Hints:
The structure holds 3 protein chains of 3 kinds.
Chain A (H helix, E strand, L loop, with lengths): L2 E8 L9 E8 L4 H12 L18 E4 L2 E4 L5 H7 L5 E4 L6 E3 L2 E2 L2 H8 L24 H4 L13 H5 L1 H5 L6 H11 L6 H13 L10 H5 L6 H14 L6 H16 L7 H6 L2 H13 L14 H14 L8 H15 L3 H10 L5 H10 L5
Parallel strand pairs in A: 1-5
Antiparallel strand pairs in A: 1-2, 3-4, 3-5, 6-7
Chain B lengths: L1 E2 L2 E4 L3 H13 L4 E5 L15 E2 L10 H11 L6 H20 L14 E2 L9 E2 L5 H15 L3 E4 L1 E8 L4 E8 L5 E5 L2 E4 L21 H8 L4 E2 L4 E8 L9 H4 L3 E3 L20 H13 L11 E4 L5 H7 L1 H11 L8 E10 L2 E3 L11 E3 L4 E2 L11 H23 L8 H15 L6 H15 L3 E2 L1 H17 L14 H25 L8 E2 L7 H4 L1 E8 L2 E8 L13
Parallel strand pairs in B: 1-10, 2-3, 2-11, 3-7, 11-18, 17-19, 20-21
Antiparallel strand pairs in B: 4-6, 5-6, 8-9, 9-10, 12-17, 12-22, 13-16, 14-15, 15-16, 22-23
Helix pairs in contact in B: 1-4, 1-10, 2-3, 3-10, 5-14, 8-9, 12-13, 12-14, 13-14
Chain C lengths: L1 E6 L9 H12 L3 E5 L11 H4 L1 H17 L4 E3 L2 H16 L1 H11 L12 E3 H9 L1 H7 L8 E4 L21 H8 L3 E3 L18 H17 L4 E4 L2 H8 L13 E3 H8 L4 H4 L12
Parallel strand pairs in C: 1-2, 1-3, 3-4, 5-6, 5-7, 7-8
Helix pairs in contact in C: 1-11, 3-4, 3-5, 7-8
Amino acid sequence: METATLKVFRxxxxxxxxxxxxxxxxxxxxxxxxxxxxxxxxxxPTLSFRAFCRSEVCGSCAMKVNGKTKLACKTPMKxxxxxxxxxxLRIDPLDHLKVIRDLVVDIDKPIEKMxxxxxxxxxxxxxxxxxxxxxxxxxxxxxxxxxxxxHCMLCFSCYSACxxxxxxxxxxxxxxFSRAYRFQVDRRDIETAKEKRIRYAISGGLWxxxxxxxxxxxxxxxxxxxxxxQNLRGQAVRKGFTDKPGAKKLKHYVDWIYATGQINRLYLxxxxxxxxxxxxxxxxxxxxxxxxVWEVPKPTKGLMKFRDIYLEIxxxxxxALDLDFSHVRKIxxxxxxxxxxxxxxxxDRVHEEGKGGKLIEKLKGLFGGDNG
Amino acid sequence: xxxxxxxIVGGGGAGLYAALWAAENTILKVAVMTKVYPTRSHxxxxxxxxxxxxxxxxxxxxxxxxxxxxxxxxxxADQDAxxxxxxxxxxxxxxxxxxxVPFSRRPDGRIAQRxxxxxxxxxTCYAADKTGFYILQxxxxxxxxxxxxxLNEWFLLSIIHNGERVEGLTAWDIRNGGVHLIKTKAVILxxxxxxxxxxxxxxxxxxxxxxxxxxxxxxxxxxxxxxxIQFHPTGLxxxxxxxxxxxxxxxxxxxxxxGERFMKRYAPEKMELAPRDIVARAIQxxxxxxxxxxxxxxxxxxxxxxxxxxxxxxxxxxxxxxxxLYEGVDPVREPIPIAPTAHYxxxxxxxxxxxxxxxxxxxxxxxxxxxxxxxxxxxxxxxxLDVLVYGRLTALEAVKYADEAPExxxxxxxxxxxxxxxxxxxxxxxxxxxxxxxxxxxxxMMKHFGVFREESSMKKGLEKxxxxxxxxxxxxxxxTGKRFNTDLISVLEFLxxxxxxxxxxxxxxxxxxxxxxxxxxxxxxRDDKNFLKHSVVELKNGEYKLSWKPxxxxxxxxxxxxx
Amino acid sequence: MxxxxxxxxxxxxxxxxxMFETMKKTFKAIDVELVLLEETTCCGGNTIDEENRKLSxxxxxxxxxxxxxxxxxxxxxxxxxxxxxxxxKRAMDKNKKLREEINNLLKEEGLEYRGTNRIYHxxxxxxxxxxxxxxxxxxxxxxxxxxxxxxxxxxxxxPRETAVDNSDNxxxxxxxxxxxxxxxxxxxxxxxxxxxxxSFYTDKNMTLKKLDKILGSVREAGADIxxxxxxxxxxxxxxxxTNMENPPGVPSSFLPELMAYAFGISKxxxxxxxxxxxxxxx
Lengths: 372, 563, 282
């Protein structure tokens, strides 16, 4: 029978000064959970880990294999051996949680953190009848809004893999935001609770998520916390919480992409942090390298049609007013000042002149050769 | 010593719903003690749905629901209790819907209902195919909202009472180690089923070891109708993990070793879609008569290959994933090895129609209890209903009782006793090995008390069970650590199983008839004249004592159970 | 000569336009012609999604449709653009209603999303279309003695649905660097940490902490330079590093620059000399 070596993290704070790894030879058959149960039954009854349902519904057996978070009952041994090409498989407890013993970690803290985001329904009496024999009407399409979030089984895989938890103690954790967001889009939940959740989410690190997408990757149930965090950020801005840098960054993206088809990295420090200096410094650095600096991006060909699509979608989603047209007009003016014409004509002219005109000419000089 | 007014043991559907109703209706000190974090409880594995007659269930009625339940129970359910449960259906459904359970909805926004086996109307409310999961998660959220006190990862050892009233509990704190004495006025046991007595031949979670039921038995409480264990026809051969009925619903074939679709000999019209118990018996017959597949002839093939990859991926993704993961077989190319798997314990702690036991202040709810609302056979969709109705009823009873009950004074003797018991386990010379003995237990149960039963085999089986129970005294706990000692927990769970197994065996031998899930080859018919009664098992001085108790029949006189 | 549509995003235009010139030369050396998809816009940077996900899908369905109209597959260098566009493609392919709705809008511009082309990131393009061998053969100046720390960045590995390599144990970047003749360092402590680029304007502190970790462990592992296939990770390493209180001064490189250099293109033209943190290695 094919076997593999598991190097399993062992630590009993009552007995061990420091953690150590113990090697076990296990059959390459079934899942990682099978292998651990095999160890417990045949090799070493003292190994501690959690397991319960053994079929991906209870979320007990999340752990790390060579640093990557896995649900043991959902991870075939064969796949692990193939991925790691015969290397030993190092089994560790989840990250960011205190080890109780061996692979068992303390999950009380993330549960406490989650509680601060009101992850439960606060019924709106106008929707949810107080008469217990009266049904509240919910249309099937309403359920779509939170069909993924409700699969969270509290396995804490995402909490372990999270880059924000790693570097920000107070960060609530990906799952917590998903579970909170689930009620933000439930019509039965009262508006005051929704407002509170946003406030608590912001103080719980809503803008600290780095959007690495690891939570989407490790979630055994297809929950997409990073996307729910984006959704919550959007709600925060719409509810008027616009003072955070992240909110200003979003505004930059929404306005500049509409106006020019591009963001403007030169203006980001100024528009987000009020830092004018950064633009000057960056401009100077580029100029020293002989790179010409464009204050505004080259307007994209087809920009006016692009704007129509953009506005049409926002209108349909009842978000057209999120566009700050006075800001867009300012951008338009910058563009026309630089190109000495209004935005509608520039788009075509720039392209008639061929690939952006003088900059490319200059680059040709810099790099030599043809550039089609 | 910890002190509460009400301790709920178990954090599944029944325990959490009880906690919620207790928390909202009293200022008493309530705690939920559970050996796993609540959301990991096995309620989360219930897929199908929950039966209830709702206000928009035109043509249906709680009476019809009650009749179906009683008929499904093969007339062994207590009809006054069934009546209570069915009448409360709508109330609990609306209540949990109002708390956020995402029930699937009809186009008009009302809770959708679908037909289920044994029901005369489509009355099974569902939330996609994860009804139990969503209920469990929602109840947990609501408990957090209500600041319910949880003793997570605590293991129940003993129930303390003075013969009249409950006084407290002893429990092992899994995380830190140590036996604790808990003083309380009321206890609700909501510890789930005990199908793990079949060890690897069960669809149940690793921990469905009947801890509360076993503690109750040891505390002198009677267990009722323990011989009734429901088998699901299609469990994966190696692990017993469930393959959904949908696999047959989508057109899967059951084949024996000759490739024959044998259901034509058992249910020529319905074939693979015959009721659960009939299919389970057919599969077991094929295996018993030597037509099973595999080197040991111990399974049957569930063939989905003709459905094609696309249909399997679309309709049965979970089945495919589980077959590959747990059986090493891709159903797109090969048939899935399956065999009947122990699924649900109808029997349990004897309670009255309100969930009360014979000891004041001690209640039982959910699968660990036998009210009885399921009698000899539970209908699909009725277990979640039972869990909620009795979680709530026992909570209200416990609140009422604890409000007026006198202070209790549990003796520390039990704590000392349990401490000694655990020390002995660690110091045992370890003549017997847990994994081996556990496997023997499962095999004995399956062989002698499986889908089919027969007197002489069961008698041999019981002897074997008593032998295993004796040998279990020599199992050693190798792990001597205090902190998160899962070796200790496994042994304690096993000791619960060996106490419960004979409690299933004894009434199974004595019930000389076939009724519901109890199918006897030597007594193939139901015998109302002699056995329309509940079996009751008690443990007295180390002996399993059997007695009988009448069934409450109100509206529905027994008739033949025919579909 | 393979022809592929090149999506520029924000990293190959404006002051970064020279990077496209480098890319073209690099790809020419391995017989690939890059056709600039010039009417495309910013992908939204995974930020527009905060405003509205459908808007992100629409913008990127348009970007994809522009490549489809030219009958070209699409090559994306930036990890984030790649992920955002690949996510949009998945959504458009899976959701018929969404596809109809967005195609209705694209019609105005004479465009249609058909879902007929492939979206490549640099890594899978090099592995599957070009082949490591062809890269090896194009090398004129092997990076002998260069100890290069391989850094993938997140959005090519996560989420699962759009990953271009084995997310747990990827190998394509190491293979490419090996083909260039470099000594690859791929076992350093924080190799999986996020570069922090996207949090620079939401939580700057987070970015600086990430940089501190990654750059620190790269240095500890004895690498001369970091190589990443993502221009944003590169910007985080090169530009945001200067925002650190005590910048460790670890040089970094955008993978095509190293390739250009190994293919014999001058350091100046490869872009390697345009970094804020100077690349001293020759």
